[in-house]
């Protein structure tokens, strides 16, 4: 029962989910879709973006039991028919989330470097945030619904029936891929390597 992991992982997931979902909402709004604004998603208030099951309860349980970290934020609804450039605009909205995670990773790395001298605990928290933020960026680019990368399939005009079939089994495919293959380990290695390169820039 790792209660410390629960506090760290859940708080980090809240911290990283908020700008991710806000980025989706902001880009969609800039491209002419007022759906996120009408639904109250054009805000940095975490309560607007967390899914209580996916952002709190499930990650708390998996962290408590030492089963890694699993979770998600509340999806931002968009209307492609209102977006400038249509499906290309939808792709930009989708990419905004992972891009925000990369930006946040850089910011957290800077804070970690500054905090190292007077608060090693805070620095280590930020280092973990850098790695997790990059992991989320990579993970969300997988072309499997409901992840952000799946919207790139629509933008690439993959036949919709294929997308619909993937949507039916997307969650199961992700669980199987992460459990049976080395995909999760590869993504973790990539995120650690990318984090190391970011810290090299600050040094």
Brief account:
By secondary structure, this protein is an all-alpha fold. It has helices at residues 3-30, 35-38, 52-64, 87-115, 120-140, 150-155, 160-180, 183-202. The chain is globular and about 50 Å long.
What this model shows, in words?
The chain is mainly α. 70% of the residues lie in helices and 0% in strands. The chain has helices at 3-30, 35-38, 52-64, 87-115, 120-140, 150-155, 160-180, 183-202. It has one domain. Helix 4 packs across helix 8. The longest helix is centred in the middle third of the chain and has 29 residues, at 87-115.
Topology:
Layout: H1 3-30, H2 35-38, H3 52-64, H4 87-115, H5 120-140, H6 150-155, H7 160-180, H8 183-202
Helix pairs in contact: 1-3, 1-4, 1-5, 4-5, 4-8, 5-8
List keywords for this structure.
203 residues; 70% helix; globular; mainly alpha
Classification by helices and strands: mainly alpha
Helix-strand string: HHHHHHHH
Helix content: 55-70%
* Average pLDDT over all residues: 93
Residues in β-strands, percent? under 5%
Secondary structure: number of strands: 0
* Number of H/I helices: 8
Shape descriptor reads: globular
The number of domains is: 1
Poorly predicted residue ranges: none
Radius of gyration equals 17 Å
The major sheet is characterized as: none
């Amino acid at each position: 029962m790792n209660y410390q992991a629960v506090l760290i992982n859940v708080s980090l997931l809240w911290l990283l989910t908020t700008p991710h979902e806000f980025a989706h909402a902001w880009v969609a709004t800039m491209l002419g879709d007022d759906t996120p604004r009408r639904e109250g998603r054009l805000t940095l208030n975490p309560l607007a973006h967390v899914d209580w099951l996916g952002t709190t309860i499930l990650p708390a349980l998996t962290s408590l039991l030492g089963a890694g970290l699993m979770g998600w934020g509340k999806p931002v609804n968009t209307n492609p028919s209102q977006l400038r450039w249509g499906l290309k605009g939808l792709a930009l909205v989708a990419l905004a989330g992972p891009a925000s995670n990369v930006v946040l990773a850089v910011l957290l790395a800077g804070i970690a470097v500054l905090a190292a001298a007077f608060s090693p605990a805070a620095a280590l928290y930020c280092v973990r945030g850098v790695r997790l933020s990059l992991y989320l960026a990579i993970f969300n680019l997988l072309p499997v619904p409901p992840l952000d990368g799946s919207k790139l399939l629509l933008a690439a005009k993959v036949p919709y029936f294929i997308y619909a079939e993937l949507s039916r089994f997307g969650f199961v495919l992700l669980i199987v891929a992460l459990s049976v293959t080395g995909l999760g380990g590869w993504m973790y290695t990539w995120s650690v390597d990318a984090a190391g390169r970011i810290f090299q820039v600050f040094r």
